[in-house]
Write a structure and sequence with these properties.
Layout: H1 3-32, H2 51-65, E1 73-74, E2 83-84, H3 92-98, H4 112-131, H5 138-149, H6 152-155, H7 167-177, H8 179-182, H9 185-196, H10 200-220, H11 228-245, H12 288-293, H13 300-311, H14 317-324, H15 336-347, E3 350-353, E4 356-360, H16 365-370, H17 382-397, H18 402-433, H19 444-451, E5 454-458, H20 466-478, H21 495-509, E6 517-521, E7 535-537, E8 540-543
Parallel strand pairs: 5-6
Antiparallel strand pairs: 1-2, 3-4, 6-8, 7-8
């Protein structure tokens, strides 16, 4: 009987922690985004010509396509071949979880807002768990968690929803730094599998930390090196199986030859890249896209914290460990070889300093093609970025007056990055308030889409007018009868689909039009050979279907 109150008390405490975590996550989201994004029926904010529209459309199209579970093949986009939901930068993990319920889920729900909230909750939870062994007191732990969970690179990803799962990096660092967890092969395999099912970039980052952990164990466990092989196999199997399962190994993917375009600058840790991302420090980049994708800004608060630690020589970890019995940060040094490789990939062939290219390193075409899957290479610095954050905050958390240092750093960080958060939230609010189909407001679009056997966009260039493409595609995949699309914006295009798309372009240029299809021209007029069948709708050139597809019985 004496144990029951204790068990009940622990359950109540866990419930209280869960509720507090939810409150913190919602509050964090409210600072960053308009809370209307949580409404699953409000999808208009996603159809504004940014990548988050592509992410949500890919998931909805997969759920409407009703592929055999657990296949991730989506038959609606890039029809008739179809492609993996992962190739539209959608969320394969959510796709697998939601697919069994696709028949009863509403056609037009969006899950992006709920996913962002979940990412913030997990970011806070893993930041707290990672820092807890190092904190001298509760105040230091709270301030440190706020600094680590609120990393500027997380908030800057508001356009790339899957990449907000940066809690995966914190999870990997937790397994790496904790002696009792680093030797658990199935924990690593589970992490690798989850990362691979969310985004391939995150898979590479997590795999680098896992590989560093295995090298460390092999070197330090000289007496058990032969016994380490079984411990490597689960993680290695996950690294092979997951890319195959999400469709990255099914067929050759076309190279964009754009590696090095979105790289990290040498001064990225203190140069925010885009004006408006820092209130206290100047920012410069070669282009807005390079500044955005290469963004690895620590924030003035963290930079101040590092300066305070350096000046007071508080990086004497051995002394701190004796005094406060906290774990050592020295194992993090084993990450350096992997981080050197990732940093080299992140910096790329164009060496940037203060917004200017100061050195170009020529790379062979074969290497550029091989690195094309990591063409937004600036992101590859994130594991090192979070390790710097974690090590700085952990070092300050366990020393005398550490809480005061962290609170000061948090205040400076809020002053420095707060205006950027206001801009992001304003952007979110504007997207929420605008009409859902602001570029395609006519109700005739619904009629034409419903009549079409398929939809073709021309030319096959997503950024020619991505908002129009997203709004027409949303109608196509959420209608009573989902309509296949011959082409859609994909992050990776299979070679076979690119060849077929070129054939489609040749046909329309010659005036060969399928009478059942709806043709939509993105900021272009139709070719002269097809002009006699074209007209404008909402200022957009189209060729409507000449022969309507009979409605399905459930749609009649």
């Amino acid at each position: 009987m004496a144990d029951r109150p204790g068990a009940a008390g622990r359950a109540t405490l866990r419930l209280g922690y869960a509720l507090l975590l939810c409150v913190c996550a919602v509050s964090m989201l409210a600072i960053w985004m308009d809370l209307s994004v949580l409404n699953p029926r409000h999808a208009g904010w996603l159809l504004d010509g940014n990548d988050h529209g592509q992410n949500s459309i890919g998931l909805v199209a997969y759920l409407r396509g009703l592929s055999a579970w657990p296949s991730l093949r989506d038959p609606l986009l890039m029809a008739p071949e179809g492609l993996s939901v992962a190739l539209t930068d959608s969320n394969p993990l959510l796709a697998i979880l939601l697919r069994p319920f696709a028949a009863i889920l509403p056609n037009d729900w969006q899950y992006a807002g709920i996913w962002l909230l979940a990412c913030l909750a997990l970011q806070i939870a893993f930041a707290w768990t990672l820092l807890r062994p190092f904190a001298r007191d509760g105040l230091a732990l709270v301030a440190g968690t706020a600094l680590l969970a609120g990393a500027p690179v997380l908030f800057a990803r508001y356009g790339h929803i899957n990449l907000c799962a940066q809690w995966l990096i914190l999870w990997a660092l937790y397994l790496f730094i904790q002696p009792r967890h680093v030797r658990r092969p199935w924990a690593w395999a589970g992490l690798i599998a989850v990362a691979g099912l969310i985004h391939p970039y995150l898979l590479v980052m997590v795999a680098a930390i896992w590989a560093s952990a295995q090298i460390r164990l092999v070197v330090i466990d000289t007496a058990q090196r032969r016994q380490r092989l079984p411990g490597v196999l689960p993680g290695l199997a996950a690294l092979i199986v997951i890319p195959w399962a999400i469709g990255f190994l099914d067929e050759p993917l076309a190279s964009t030859r754009s590696y090095g375009t979105f790289n990290m600058a040498l001064d990225a840790l203190w140069n925010a890249g885009n004006e408006g991302y820092s209130f206290l420090l100047p920012a410069a980049s070669t282009s807005p896209s390079q500044g955005f994708e290469g963004m690895n800004y620590l924030g003035a608060g963290i930079l101040t914290l590092i300066a305070m630690l350096a000046v007071t020589r508080l990086f004497r970890r051995a002394e701190a460990r004796v005094r406060y019995d906290t774990p050592s940060l020295k194992p993090l040094l084993w990450l350096l070889p992997a981080f050197v490789v990732l940093t080299a990939i992140a910096i790329g062939p164009h060496i940037i300093w203060r917004g200017r290219i100061v050195l170009d390193l020529p790379l062979p075409g074969a290497l550029i093609d091989a690195l094309d899957p990591l063409r937004a290479s600036g992101r590859m610095f994130w594991p090192a970025y979070y390790t710097i954050l974690f090590a700085s905050i952990a070092a300050a958390s366990r020393v005398r007056h550490g809480a005061a240092m962290l609170l000061l750093a948090l205040l400076i960080q809020a002053i420095d990055f707060g205006p950027a958060l206001q801009v992001m939230r304003g952007f979110s609010t504007a997207s929420v308030r605008r009409p859902m189909f602001d570029r395609t407001p006519s109700a005739e679009w619904d009629v034409l889409v419903a009549q079409a056997s398929a939809i073709e966009f021309h030319p096959y260039e997503a950024y020619r007018d991505l908002a129009v493409m997203e709004q027409v595609t949303w109608r196509a995949v959420t209608g009573c009868r989902p309509v296949p699309l011959r082409w859609f914006y994909a992050s990776r295009e299979p070679v076979a689909i690119r060849v077929r798309a070129a054939e489609d372009m040749t046909k329309i240029d010659a005036g060969i039009v399928d009478p059942g299809r709806l043709y939509v021209f993105l900021k272009d007029s139709p070719p002269p050979a097809a002009m006699n069948r074209a007209r404008r709708l909402d200022g957009i050139w189209i060729i409507p279907p000449a022969r309507a597809v009979p409605p399905a019985k459930r749609c009649a």
